[in-house]
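Practice problem: predict the structure.
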Amino acid sequence: MVDMAYPGMSFGNWSTIDENGRTRVLSVNGEQYVILRWDLRKFAGMKAVGSGLLELTTYSLRRSADYEKDFGMIRVSEIIGGDPGWDGKSVTFDSFTRGEPLDGVINSQMIIDAYVSPTHGDKNLITISNAVLQRMIDGKTLGIAIKPLGAVDASFYDRHVLNGTVGAVLYLNLAPGASLGDSPK
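Answer:
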C-alpha cells in the first residue's frame, strides 16, 4: 500500500485488530492505494489466452448507502511508471512514484471499475483483459493499482494471512493452455 497523506512512510505492515488478533490487510480509501505486482518473467515470450481474473478477498467495506451507483467502487488501473522494483515491505508513495506525477505512474484510464462484496471473506473476482495481461507478461505494465472510486474504504486480506490462502491472486491462461495462479510479490 501507498498513502498520499504520508508519502514518506511505508505501510507494508498495515493491519487491523480483530477477535483473532492482528490481521494484515490492504486498504483502499481516499488517501491509500493498493499496488500489486507479480513476477511474470518466467512467462516471457508466452501469450496470454483470453481474460484473466484478479481475486481479492474482502476483509471489510465501508461506504454510504446514499450513493449506490458508481460511488463507493474500486478502480483497477495499470502501473505504467515509477519504480519498477519497489519492495512491498518498504515502499512509500514517494519511492513508488520517484517524483513523477501520479497519472504518469498509474494509468488514468481504468482497466475496470468493480463493486466490492461487503461480506467478510467473500471473493471478489475482477476481470483483467487479455491486453493488460499481455503487457504484464511483456514487462510493459509494471503491475496493478487499486484506488477508490468515490467515497469508499475497502480492505482486503494481505497475502501473509492464513498462509497466503486469502491474499490477492492473479489467474491467467497462457498458450498452449496451461492455467496458472500466482500470488503477488
